[in-house]
Here is the input.
Amino acid sequence: MKRFAIIAAIFLAGCEAQPTDTMAEMRLSTADDFAPILDKRLMFGDTDYVVMSSDGTLTGDFGGVDTRGTWEVKDGYFCRVLTAGPRGASPEDCQLVVRKGDVLSITRERGAGPTFDYTIS
Here is the structure.
């Protein structure tokens, strides 16, 4: 019996040490959902980033090019218009945003376009 208790304790300790993926994905679909990431750098790679502000503006740098625009939540999507960026001004693009931990997966064209991952820093 004593041997069983020792083996069970070792087995359970080993189970506790195993990593688990307990972070749930959360779709950001309201202004309140975006509140925790406002004024933080959303990094795309090592140097490119964007910052969303509570006043509805966004600023950033992509490829060494100043990036600016506005954002709002419409019909459950993050919608942004760029006034300046690597490709110049860009019309409104409403995007599906899903957060898992410190990673935002952003899919353009209301979830039908390409997906890009940003890290919250």
Remarks:
- Residues 1-20 have pLDDT under 50 and may be disordered.
